[in-house]
Amino acid sequence: MPLYVSIPLVVVIWLAIGLGAAVWLGRRGYRDRKWYLIGAALGPLFVPIALERGREQNRVVERTPMADATPAGPDGTVTVVVGVDGSEESDRSVRDAARLFGGGGTRVVLVMAIDPDVVEFHDDTERDRCRSLLADRADWFPRSSPVVEIASGRPGHALLEVARQESADVVVVGRRGRGLSHRMLGSVAEHVTRHSPAPVLLAGPVAGR
Description:
With about 210 residues, the chain is of the alpha/beta class. It has helices at about 5-25, 35-40, 45-55, 90-100, 115-120, 125-140, 155-165, 185-195, and strands at about 60-65, 80-85, 105-115, 145-150, 170-175, 200-205.
């Protein structure tokens, strides 16, 4: 094979392997674009790094019961877990949950998933942003005080992990992710719908969409 053909071919293969590993890592919850740059630079050398980091398990890293939050466990209490990410669809799901489950006898848990890098590298700015967003959405439940949780990992998997831990009776999530047609389920909604241990309520499309 001529040198002028083999060199570009090697470069293409190098980039494809590295970027493929970065895409796989992104699906594991690592959303920082720096991983794509690192993957492109390291190529096949990035594969073991991605595999090692991708072993990080979905887990709750912060749990804060709001004032007067309904305790877990009493007979007749319905536990509702709601996914939050600040998007329009997510906000619609929070409003739907507040309208349907915001009364007495309901225990609401608001969950937001963060990139594992935020936990590992102690990114207090991002964690403060998440805390502020969750506290604001908790105020949308005027007749109850939700528990708020920050979880690390893939959003869909982290949401389901919280649902299992909290013994959720209902899981509420936005119908789609950013930029997708309202006729399609987003990856988070699809995963939650397929694997949830409890019934799932999908928020409708935002008005005008």
